[in-house]
Amino acid sequence: MEVKINQVVLHLLDPGASEPVLSDRAMDMDADLYEYYTATLERAFASDEVKNCRFLPDSAFAAEMAQNQDFIDLSRRIAGVIFEQMLQYQAIPAGDLAVVDFTADGVPFYGVLKLNYRPGYTHHTELMGNGRFSSMVPQRTLLPGTPKADEAALIDRANGTVRLIEKKFTLDSKAPAGGYQEFLMNEARYSRLTREFPERADVLFQRNEDEAKARYEHLLKLVEMYDK
After folding, report:
1. How far apart are CA 63 and CA 6, in angstroms?
2. Alpha helices in the chain (DSSP H)
3. pLDDT digits (tens, 9 = 90+) for 164-205
């Protein structure tokens, strides 16, 4: 397969921030970056995890892609939609989103590549007096060193088909069989609160139960979303 990249726009999607950092121009591509993204796209095409999909006839995204000839603006819109999903489903990891305009064997494609952050360390050197010392500094926004997207969509602009790679979300925990507060009462640290602060304990236990149910329902929504 011959992949030719026309342009790549990189956007930063971190739900810990109030809004995404969206680029206004394409990346400056040197030989190393061109090779990185070429290998990432080739690996996505060859992945065993690919699902073959097609846009629905009334897809707003398909209509936007067909009508919007401004690739930078289109990439920003894609990033904005994904960021809204990340805010709603907080278990989706932060990462950079690379939107790529390219051809594969002459066929025009758009690629949407999610590159999740990895925690790691980098070195740091300081000068003190007449000497220097080096240490390690934690970094939480390192990008993958190997050319592989965590999730990807490869959109064939000629026929509208989509090759989709997405992470599988599994939920091992089962719904509680008994009452939540009954479970708390079997724990000495919680039952002690009912004796020492009975009125406050009732309020706190109910709030704890409501929040636990909300978290479990949120996880069920994630399972449903990733199984679609």
Report:
1. 22
2. 31-46, 60-67, 71-88, 180-185, 188-196, 198-227
3. 998 765 556 666 666 777 777 777 777 777 877 877 877 877
Please report the pLDDT score of residue 143 as a whole number: 82
State both tokens at 104: 């594969």
Q: Taking the C-alpha atoms of 55, 77, 226 and 140 in order, what is their torsion angle to the nearest 10 degrees?
A: 150
Residue 153's nearest CA partner among 227, 90, 79 is: 79
Check if the beta carbon of residue 24 is closer than 8 Å to that of residue 72. yes
Residues of the chain with pLDDT under 50: none
Query: Which pTM value belongs to this model?
Result: 0.71
Q: Please, are residues 11 and 21 in contact by the beta-carbon 8 Å criterion?
A: yes
Are the beta carbons of 149 and 40 closer than 8 angstroms?
yes
